[in-house]
Amino acid sequence: MPAAIGTPLDELDTPALVVDVVGLERNIARMAEWGRRAGKGVRPHAKAHKTPLVARKQLDAGAVGICCSKLAEAEAMVQGGVDRVLVTSQVVGAPKIRRLVSLARHAEAMVVVDDPANAEELSEAAQAAGLRLGVIVEVDVGQNRCGTAPGAPAAALAERIARLPGLRFEGLQGYEGHLQHVYDAAERRAKCLEAMARLGDSREAVERAGLEVRVCTTAGTGTHEIAGECDWVTEVQPGSYIWMDADYLRVQGTPYRSALTVLAGVVSRQREGAAIVDAGQKSVSTDAGPAAVKGGRLTYAPMGDEHGRLTGDDLPALGARVELIPSHCDTTVNLHDELHVVRDGRLEAVWRIAGRGKVQ
Amino acid sequence: MPAAIGTPLDELDTPALVVDVVGLERNIARMAEWGRRAGKGVRPHAKAHKTPLVARKQLDAGAVGICCSKLAEAEAMVQGGVDRVLVTSQVVGAPKIRRLVSLARHAEAMVVVDDPANAEELSEAAQAAGLRLGVIVEVDVGQNRCGTAPGAPAAALAERIARLPGLRFEGLQGYEGHLQHVYDAAERRAKCLEAMARLGDSREAVERAGLEVRVCTTAGTGTHEIAGECDWVTEVQPGSYIWMDADYLRVQGTPYRSALTVLAGVVSRQREGAAIVDAGQKSVSTDAGPAAVKGGRLTYAPMGDEHGRLTGDDLPALGARVELIPSHCDTTVNLHDELHVVRDGRLEAVWRIAGRGKVQ
How far is Cα B50 from Cα A239, in angstroms, rounded to an integer? Predict the structure, then answer.
């Protein structure tokens, strides 16, 4: 049920995804300030919020554009008014390529590429539409997922792309997603610099081939400051810094604060030593472990699709509310249709998560 | 993008949630036939499909009503034309109770109760609306989640309810959710019969108090046949039998067949010995482990929000499709907005999952 603006937080219907908007604004401002200080572009990742208004706030704060995991996520952002999107995954097959070319008529839309046949298909479709599509070569810097091998193979693909009439070679992407949650600061820094060296080698190889690398995009919330030490990096792609899920809060040295919770209500107090809440796997994701309970006094464990168990001292009574801090904000946001935006303890707005479920 | 009816399965855009409709129809018919043979009602659980048309097919096949995990799920079912719903979780707090009473004007809506104060609130709201609400006392038969203790406490609550002017005591619910996925048939049977004994004791206690137990509802896909052996059980609540996720397929002695997959497309073939597909944690849930790959030849591992890795022999080429069998159908269905219904290898219909995200 849509709640009335002004409703106190603890009277919102449950479960509800809740934004501490002061925390959100502070996180956005802090990252923008870091970018200015470090002289790096910030291209925040929409996978964390999937909400055009949050993207616009990031652009207003100085972001150079918005990253999207999927084409459909980018479509949701552009329809929501975002004018600069980078699709950070490969767009494969004729139907999706046609959609991408259509999107590029309505916004600056770039895409990553790691395969020459895919590059040719993109070029043909763009050329047929009378467009020139900006593309970025994805380099595997150690995540072992998508991307060409670093160095010469990246340069070879860049050269092929530069010769294709429908494409404009823009630069390189190397995402070290596997390092974001390395808790120890020294270990994270060492591993990240190794990954960055692979990106730097690739940049050199491309430049030796006579091509300009305008964009060298990388890093996330956990590694952007380390990537920022490298000359060859032009911009970073942090997503989770706006929310800081429970797992990121364990990562040493990240100055961002928790701003996203799931408000849950106690629905059963029949068990000794436990309170059952109405938030289970369909309200708070478990792929990074169980959620934490705000305040730190209680422990939450999921109990199926729609229930969770709280344990600890001073358990809340039937009908009482608790705030859960998701262990993974991206997948938790993706479960909900709306963000309940709270300032000074009261509902200020309800924002539709337009990119929710946009996986195609 | 909405696909054209008649599109071959392997030309659907990816990732897409796909229903083998022949399998679905066979599973629904088989469960209905079991109910007739066993002389038990079948009240299928909507948490597995969240789709009113699937509920209607279950009712057409003879189901006595539809179970819903949450009030909002029940609202979605009733708005989709379902006329008999049982909310299998406690409905707590004045705003939700008002919604439940409103719902009861438009359908036969029952709810479970495990707390006397909650029962009084329900009674007052129903009475104020000039209604009498059917309620079922939830008994904890070993799941250790919601529900009164079995036996005397269940009877005491039933007696209190029977005296409340806005309520009509209908019977008992005892859900042994923790036993559904016990793979070994003998172990599952022994444990289920223990749980059923707690439900039987509770029924006797209520009847000794002079109340009629019209409904004694329990069990799921993994245990309905065992619960069916017990005289005191009047009906069962299976959900997953319509889809049979990868984990249920490991449960010995379940005759239902796999009818739900996530169609994924290969988006990168840059790694030796791996193909990367476009289905990650936002397309196929991981709370019960990784999805299986249809055909059994390949292995899938999630790689973040939007990617997964296939390994094995004869890896599919860039752009090729594979079908993933979710490890947990409930939470996977809840990620998607639409079911792509396929018969004889072609798209027959697209059904909106109206209950998706309805957690309140």
Answer: 31
